[in-house]
Specification:
The protein is built from 6 helices and 7 strands, in the order βαβαββαββαβαα.
Length: 190
């Protein structure tokens, strides 16, 4: 069974490698421009858009995996920053506070002419230490926050700001591995 990751994210590729599966990467070219009050619904829609985009470009028996991550603070959706100033604003907002990370996971399976769609999400609570203005500026200058929801990378040097988490670490990184593994196992893919 061909497995396709609908993402060009190096982080998601690294995480998929942890499952010891052969897979191809075909990036989705959908726009992430939805907004929704319910963050779980939002990430499910975004991940499904990615998975469907790639599914529709491919053929044969296959499994297409789409994923999307957002950060939410007091109901406000914090996606990838558009500028360094936006990264600074976001990190100032999160400093010393808790926020939530939502990662949508969509798996589209076509096996023996039968199509099955699984669309779910995982949520994690993240607590930040207080971050000084100088620390924020120094971190933003590394360019690490540039393509990260919430303007930080928990698996990178942004980890120094994370006091604790409640939930799945891999949800924060961008692909809830245990959830994906359980889905693939229950569908006899692995």
């Amino acid at each position: 069974m061909k497995i396709i990751l609908a993402s060009s994210s190096p982080r998601r590729k690294e995480l998929m490698n942890l499952l010891n599966l052969a897979f191809d990467i075909i990036p989705s070219d959908t726009e992430e421009n939805l907004d929704c009050k319910n963050k779980g619904v939002l990430v499910k829609k975004l991940s499904m858009m990615k998975a469907e985009n790639v599914f529709n470009k491919t053929d044969g028996d296959r499994v297409v995996i789409g994923s999307d991550t957002i950060v939410s603070y007091k109901g406000k959706t914090l996606m990838k920053p558009k500028s360094e100033n936006e990264s600074i604003e976001t990190l100032n907002l999160l400093s010393g506070k808790k926020h939530y990370v939502y990662t949508g996971l969509s798996v589209i399976i076509l096996k023996n002419g039968m199509k099955k769609v699984i669309n779910t999400y995982s949520k994690c609570k993240v607590f930040f230490d207080k971050i000084s203005h100088d620390e924020i500026i120094e971190y933003v200058k590394t360019s690490e926050p540039a393509d990260k929801a919430g303007s930080y990378s928990i698996q990178g040097s942004g980890a120094r700001f994370v006091k604790k988490i409640k939930g799945d670490y891999y949800t924060v990184v961008g692909l809830p591995l245990n959830l994906l593994y359980r889905i693939l196992k229950s569908e006899d893919i692995i």
